[in-house]
């Protein structure tokens, strides 16, 4: 099982793919998502989104001003500003 992840900013898709774990910062604190997680709708706080791909490689992005939605192992993160960290 895997999460289907879509990280988008206001003007472009920043990253999409499959992941085994995603950790994001919301206004209520950090939250981690794995396949099978209950549905969630949350407001993003300024901070990092950390994505662990199926092969263990990690992707890190800064994101702010948006929301995230998870349902049926599909995680969509929509941010006003988002960029990958090199």
Automatic annotation (TrEMBL):
Source organism superkingdom: Bacteria
Major subcellular site: membrane
Location in or out of the cell: Cell membrane
SUPFAM superfamilies found in the cross-reference section: Epsilon subunit of F1F0-ATP synthase N-terminal domain
Pfam families documented for this protein: ATP-synt_DE_N
Domain (ATP synthase F1 complex delta/epsilon subunit N-terminal): residue spans on this chain: 3-82
Keyword Transport tagged: yes
Gene Ontology CC annotations of this record: plasma membrane; proton-transporting ATP synthase complex
InterPro entries, sorted: ATP_synth_F1_dsu/esu, ATP_synth_F1_dsu/esu_N, ATPsynth_dsu/esu_N
Protein name according to UniProt: F0F1 ATP synthase subunit epsilon
Native source organism of the sequence: Microbacterium ulmi
């Amino acid at each position: 099982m895997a999460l289907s992840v879509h990280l988008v900013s206001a003007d472009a898709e920043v990253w999409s793919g499959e992941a085994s774990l995603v950790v994001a910062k919301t206004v209520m604190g950090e939250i981690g998502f794995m396949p099978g997680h209950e549905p969630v709708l949350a407001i993003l706080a300024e901070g990092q989104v950390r994505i662990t791909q199926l092969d263990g490689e990690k992707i890190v992005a800064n994101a702010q001003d948006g929301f995230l939605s998870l349902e049926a192992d599909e995680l969509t993160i929509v941010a006003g500003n988002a960029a990958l960290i090199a």
